[in-house]
Design brief:
Length: 376
């Protein structure tokens, strides 16, 4: 089967909470601040459902040096403009203190319509994520890689976790964001599709019935982008540290290239039922990098760090070809120092042990997150 080699350009989208520096509470984005961000970063700033959020997106990149420079500039610029209003962006998937009940919906036709449609579920969406786009171009290749890459989604989630707290409570989960997001329709792991045509026919059932306008309202963990010729990773939490974000993106990019190489050789990664893949998804959500995931080939649980080494070995040729071996290897640093979720819970417990009240301890966690968002 002839398969056109993909360009494999990529882009990273990040969603930030906007925080009042003094109170550490979530804050609504002033219209003049949004306008200033859009003027300073044309085409790279977007709004989200809630006014306490802002989205940034890198330009399509061919190298991780480009992506690092672009994403760093986005974080610095937004932070600098926010500071003029006593605010700060915070790269974490949930806000430790919370307060979603008093948040305002962004006043646009799209978001007001979503808020009305999603009702109480939508009002809980004070969550932020990271999306990684990989340009594959060919629609058949996008579906084939999506089918195979589903297996690795829990691994990518585990590396990115940054949402252990919800409304002031330590949930015990490394990614409580998913518990919130799972309440929405059309989320979760995508099914296996035999072809691009089967995917389109499936989505068009909802489009033709007027349930959704287009496939942009299909919020799967991994999906073909409706706007771009890309495969879009959506499952991951936002990484607080810039280096961690680039590492997760590099692992995903290398997995995509490796799966393309398999297809080019008329091979494919083993397929497993969504029921089993969802079990690993839950384990990653609950335990993160400190836990274990199923290796379905051998039928037993394996420590996550061992599974990461397998992925690094499988994609070594791809990391070299793409010039991102150091970014992929940096995933080992995440194992060593913990994800944002691990650091948040450790900081919280350290503050409590030092005599802080739960509220004071959570404020210290917020301070840590604001600092780490710009620590690069």
């Amino acid at each position: 089967m002839a398969v056109n080699e993909p360009r494999l350009t990529f882009g990273i989208e990040e969603e930030y909470h906007i925080v009042d520096i003094e109170s550490r509470e979530l804050a609504s984005l002033p219209p003049e601040l949004l306008s200033a961000c859009q003027q300073a970063l044309p085409g790279q700033i977007g709004t989200e459902l809630l006014r306490s959020q802002i989205e940034v997106g890198t330009k399509p990149a061919r190298t991780f040096a480009e992506a690092r420079a672009d994403l760093g500039n986005l974080r610095r610029t937004v932070a600098g403009l926010c500071r003029q209003h006593g605010l700060a962006p915070m790269a974490a998937s949930t806000h430790p203190i919370g307060g979603h009940r008093r948040l305002e919906t962004t006043a646009s036709e799209r978001y007001l319509g979503l808020a009305a449609d999603l009702a109480g579920v939508g009002r809980r969406l004070a969550i932020c994520g990271m999306h990684v786009h990989v340009e594959l171009g060919d629609n058949a290749l996008r579906i084939d890689v999506m089918n195979q890459a589903r297996y690795f989604l829990p691994h990518l989630l585990a590396l990115s976790t940054s949402s252990p707290f919800w409304e002031g409570d330590d949930t015990g989960l490394k990614s409580f964001r998913l518990a919130i997001f799972n309440e929405l329709p059309r989320t979760g792991l995508p099914d296996w599709f035999r072809s691009w045509e089967e995917y389109r026919n499936t989505v068009d059932v909802l489009v033709n019935a007027g349930v959704v306008e287009d496939a942009s309202k299909i919020w799967w963990d991994l999906r073909p982008s409706e706007r771009f010729p890309t495969l879009e990773l959506r499952l991951t939490d936002i990484c607080t540290r810039l280096d961690d974000a680039l590492s997760v993106a590099a692992v995903f990019l290398c997995v995509c290239r490796w799966l393309y190489r398999l297809r080019r050789s008329n091979q494919s990664w083993r397929q497993y039922p969504v029921f089993l893949l969802a079990e690993n998804r839950w384990r990653a959500q609950r335990y993160g990098i400190g836990g274990s995931l199923f290796d379905f080939g051998i039928g037993s649980l394996v420590p996550f760090k061992d599974l990461l080494e397998e992925i690094i070995a499988l994609t070594a040729e791809d990391a070299d070809a793409l010039g991102c071996a150091s970014e992929v290897a940096a995933a080992r640093n995440i194992i060593a120092s913990g994800t944002s979720a691990d650091r948040q819970t450790a900081a919280y417990q350290l503050a409590l042990d030092a005599g802080a009240s739960p509220r004071e301890a959570l404020c210290q966690v917020v301070d840590l997150l604001i600092a780490e968002t710009l620590a690069f």
